[in-house]
Amino acid sequence: MAIHPGTRLGVYEVVARIGAGGMGEVYRARDPQLNRDVAIKLLHAPGAADPERLDRFSREAHLLAALSHPNIAHVYGFEAAPVDGGSGVLIMELVEGETLAERLSAGPLPLDDAVPIARQIAEALEFAHERGIIHRDLKPANVKIRPDGLVKVLDFGLAKALDSGEGRASDVMNSPTLLAGTEVGLILGTASYMAPEQARGRPVDRRADIWAFGAVLFEMLSGRRAFDGSSSSEILAAVLKEDAPWSALPSALPPVIVSLIRRCLERDPRQRLRDIGEARIALEGPLAETSARPQATAVRRGYTWLPWALAGVLAMALLAALLKPSPSSTAALPVRFYIASPTPSALPRQSLTPTLAVSPHGQRIAVADSEGLWLWAAESGG
After folding, report:
1. Rg of the chain over CA atoms, in angstroms?
2. d(C-alpha 282, C-alpha 119), whole Å
3. CATH 1.10.510.10 at 98-298, yes or no
4. In angstroms, what CA-CA distances link 111 with 55, 116, 273, 282?
5. Contacting residues for 97 by C-beta, under 8 A, at least 6 apart
6. pLDDT in tens, 181-224
7. Which CATH code is given to the segment(s) 8-93?
8. Which among 128, 174, 263, 313 could disulfide-bond with 273, CB atoms 3.0 to 4.6 Å apart, if both were Cys?
9. Going by C-beta distance under 8 Å and a sequence separation of 6 or more, which residues neighbour residue 198?
10. Environment class of 271 (CB within 10 Å of its CB; exposed 0-12, middle 13-18, buried 19+)
11. For residue 294, with 0-12 CB atoms within 10 Å meaning exposed, 13-18 middle and 19 or more buried, which class applies?
12. DSSP states of 194-236 as a string?
């Protein structure tokens, strides 16, 4: 049953219902002791009322509470008090903003929006993986984007905490959404991001998160899921056998991004990207290139080539004047030149091609380029 505003759960007073996920109802609540708002999740997964399972979940929640990172929604604690039929209550950081799923409902993201979000997700996964914790249920609905652009990954590690631990091959329930889900949307939402080994009910490691990361990045850039269908069985069949619709990705994507997604979505875990840190590194380059693109356009529009073109015209005019023969010139005589290379200046070479010219009587040589004008006169005598 739903909890009404004003209900007290331990020291927390429920303010309003935020929504529902695969694991339970989510509410905004007030912590009067610390004078802050929190999110509380009322767990209604199968077996949540089992004392042994609640005890194990409590231990997992305390481990997750030590997972402190800017891109991971913090877990404050767990209350095993019997609420709503015996479910436990998880107390978490309240993250304002929209989910990535809500953002994607309007269509695909531009590259310069998608890359910062993906990089922050990768940073969250990398931090947790280094501490032996995997998410197991990464999807756009579990990623929130604050108004200031900070990304928070939600429900980190809770899939394992809710897992029965029996390891049945028929139990695709490594995902808490599938564990609890009877609504079609919930089932589809998780199956689309489930690694093949996870869909087969096999033990999973950090590479399952890497697969899900690739599926999320694909969706951010294409506006459609990498694996989809009209039922959970169709989606899982696509995950196990079909290729992602690669043609849905924008043709102008940098090759490094396409290569990264392909490596994340390798069905064989042995061939898959092995460390999410590699994804974070790969995403840093395209982000820099993207941010530099408007500046490069502005430079072109600013006609910064014009001073160099004018300098070239003036140099050639001066060159012509210097090399013009005088009326008193005598017959040409053998001449000898000693030419030292001009010292390069600190100015960058631009588009003006060096020009060499010799006077009609061979008495002078001139060279003009974007760095200046040089003139050599012949030695006297033969």
Report:
1. 33
2. 9
3. yes
4. 44, 9, 21, 14
5. 144, 145, 146, 147, 152
6. 444 444 445 899 999 998 888 888 999 999 999 999 999 999 99
7. 3.30.200.20
8. 263
9. 136, 172, 174, 175, 204, 208, 211
10. exposed
11. exposed
12. --HHHHTT----HHHHHHHHHHHHHHHHHSS-SS--SSHHHHH
Render the burial of 161-175: b for 16+ CB within 10 Å, e for the rest: bbbbeeeeeeebbbb
Q: What residue segments make up the domains of the chain, in order of their start? A: 8-93, 98-298, 306-377
Token digits for 314?
A: 């003036």
Phi then psi for 366, rounded to 5 degrees?
-130, 145
Q: Residues 31, 112, 113, 137: which is the catalytic one?
A: 137
Residue showing tokens 């889900």: 181
Task: Indicate if 137 belongs to the active site.
Answer: yes
How high is the pLDDT of residue 102? 96
